[in-house]
Design a protein that fits this description.
Layout lengths: L9 E4 L6 H16 L7 E6 L5 H15 L2 E7 L2 H10 L4 E5 L8 E7 L8 H11 L17 E3 L4 H19 L6 E4 L8 H8 L4 E4 L18 H9 L4 E5 L6 E5 L4 E2 L1 H14 L7 E5 L4 H9 L3 E5 L3 H11 L3 E3 L5 E3 L8 H15 L3 H5 L7 E7 L12 H14 L4 E6 L5 E7 L3 H18 L2
Parallel strand pairs: 2-3, 2-4, 3-6, 7-8, 7-9, 12-13
Antiparallel strand pairs: 1-5, 4-5, 9-10, 10-11, 14-15, 16-18, 17-18
Length: about 450
């Protein structure tokens, strides 16, 4: 069981739970683990989002890296996928993003990327934790001329902008329509400047919303976790599409011209169809997680796609993609990985792929997203004893109740039981055609779990 790292790096309240002292240790141990096989002074890139505590955490990380003897390039405010892209492109030894993604401003976090631009696996996070708590950090201090140096390289974000121009300018120019208007909500986060730059370079008619960060307003009633403002803006201003990023720019959700949400499942289906039409979808396969809506399964079945589902977390989606050479995967929350371009979720990249699909098809966003018919989904939490979160797996009464319910669904419903990683809860998620019925069934299963897992 990991002590510091969760499903997406370390994420805590800044300056209390995520103290400068802890960050220093994470940096020093991380520099050692991620560069111990190199025979030169390692180079590490650091990017951050717009939250108030960003420079505090950055300073502590820089101190840890320099103390180990690593050299640091400070990228400033930059999206997570840009750090991943630049780490790989510049052949750096590692990259770090300081962000708490979609969380409110008081949280902050640390995400490590390997020299291949990928989130590091669980095993490396565990090794970093071992080094942090082993008492050997003092031994890892550089001395004299081995101490690292840092440099400010905020100019490198232009390399990320050029990546879009190089890959998409010609195609967008061929199909672009000046009457096609896009509203982009940057969540007062890491994409607040670069999104406007990329869309301007590509000549896409757009309006930028929520691009005035003050350190506190990141994700505040805006961005991919709060679509209400964007939906209203799209309808009132007769936009053809709304795009919403999260605080660090690795997620994208969309809103069609009618103000209806296009979530990660629908984005995966639209992009799968688009790539397949160009013979660019590897093995006609989509990789998603167990939390994807049953509607995506039905879409795959009806259109001869193979759908593989992993446990929750975009890192597990990526692992599955790499294992068998698939190039499209993602989560319902809007993390979409297009492995031909970048080995992590990339909100701007996802939005450009969606826009290409719309422009080339000459269909509206609502017409394209209708290819997935979503099933109602109900989530009920069962409160259990902390040490009994997995007892439901062995309980015969619970197993029989779930099996009976799945038989009743006959392929038109689904039961997913998942223990919480952080709380004494077991989450009961049920999908089906009738929301009232599945809500009642979910409550019944949750009560059964509570009764047997006290």
């Amino acid at each position: 069981m990991r002590k510091y790292f969760g499903t997406d790096g370390i994420r805590r309240i800044a300056n209390t739970e995520l103290s400068p002292e802890l960050v220093y240790r994470v940096a020093k141990a991380g520099a050692y683990v991620l560069s111990k096989h190199t025979d030169k002074a390692p180079t590490i890139l650091i990017g951050r989002d717009t939250r108030l505590s960003g420079t505090l955490i950055e300073s502590a990380m820089v101190a840890g890296f320099l103390s180990y003897g690593a050299n640091v390039k400070l990228l400033g405010v930059i999206p997570t996928p840009a750090v991943a892209y630049l780490t790989k492109k510049l052949k750096a030894d590692a990259g770090v993003v300081i962000s708490a993604s979609h969380n409110t401003f008081e949280f902050n976090g640390i995400k490590y990327f390997s020299n291949k631009g990928m989130k590091i696996p669980d095993e490396l996070e565990e090794e970093i934790e071992e080094v942090m708590d082993s008492g050997k950090l003092d031994e890892l201090s550089a001395v004299k001329d081995k101490i690292g140096v840092s440099e400010i390289r905020t100019d490198l974000i232009d390399e990320y902008a050029y990546f879009f121009r190089k890959n998409f300018e010609d195609n967008i120019e061929q199909y672009n329509n000046s009457n096609f208007k896009v509203a982009i909500d940057t969540a007062n986060g890491a994409t607040y400047q670069i999104a406007d730059k990329v869309f301007s370079l590509l000549g896409i008619n757009h309006i930028i919303l929520n691009n005035k960060p003050d350190g506190i307003n990141i994700n505040q009633k805006c961005g991919s976790t709060h679509l209400e403002m964007l939906k209203e803006y799209v309808i009132n201003n007769k936009m053809d599409l709304g795009i919403a990023f999260d605080g660090d720019g690795d997620r994208c959700l969309a809103v069609d011209e009618k103000g209806e949400e296009i979530d990660g499942d629908k984005l995966l289906a639209i992009i799968a169809d688009y790539l397949k039409s160009k013979n660019k979808l590897e093995k006609d396969t989509i990789v998603a997680t167990v939390m994807s809506n049953l509607g995506l399964n039905k879409f795959a079945e009806n259109n001869n796609y193979k759908l593989l589902q992993t446990k929750v977390g975009d890192r597990y989606v990526l692992e599955e993609m790499l294992k068998d050479g698939y190039n499209l995967g993602g989560e319902q929350s809007g993390h979409v990985i297009l492995l031909d371009y970048n080995p992590t979720g990339d909100g701007i990249l996802t939005s450009i792929m969606l826009i290409q699909a719309i422009l080339e098809s000459k269909k509206t966003a609502s017409q394209l997203s209708s290819i997935v018919q979503k099933y109602p989904q109900v989530l009920v939490n069962a409160k259990v004893a902390s040490d009994k979160k997995y007892e439901y797996e062995k309980n015969q009464e619970i197993k029989e109740a779930i099996e009976k319910l799945e038989k009743e669904f006959s392929g038109n419903g689904r039961v997913l039981i998942r223990p919480s990683g952080t709380e004494p809860l077991v989450r009961v998620m049920i999908e089906g055609k009738d929301e009232k019925i599945i809500e009642e069934k979910a409550k019944n299963i949750a009560k059964l779990i509570e009764k047997n897992c006290k």
